[in-house]
Structure to design on (108 residues):
């Protein structure tokens, strides 16, 4: 005999995170992000942020060079070049994360 509430307990198309959250009565990561977007909507209406992603460098030359590399020195040269090229973007993200961390702290 099938349980009368079978559909209520059916976990088809649910992730393990959703199943665990339902079991423990907690929110999933997606739930929290969705609520944060909803709660921040008035703020973002006043402070428009760019919708396009940050520009990304073309990594095809680095991938091709890595595929052709035969020695550790050649791999190192390519990775050092890539890290040097990405440094300005990484520094900007790092500075932003430090600023976020300092919002509620007096010493920064």
């Amino acid at each position: 005999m099938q349980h009368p509430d079978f559909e209520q307990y059916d976990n088809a198309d649910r992730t393990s995170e959703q199943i665990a959250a339902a079991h423990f009565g907690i929110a999933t990561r997606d739930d929290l992000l969705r609520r944060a977007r909803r709660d921040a909507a008035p703020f973002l209406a006043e402070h428009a942020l760019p919708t396009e992603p940050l520009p990304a460098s073309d990594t095809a030359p680095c991938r091709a060079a890595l595929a052709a590399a035969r020695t550790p020195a050649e791999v190192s040269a390519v990775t050092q070049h890539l890290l040097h090229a990405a440094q300005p973007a990484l520094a900007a993200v790092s500075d932003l994360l430090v600023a976020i961390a300092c919002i509620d702290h007096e010493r920064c």
Remarks:
- Residues 72-102 form the longest helix (31 residues).
- The mean pLDDT is 84.
- Residues 46 and 106 are 27 Å apart (CA to CA).
- The chain is about 60% helix and 0% strand.
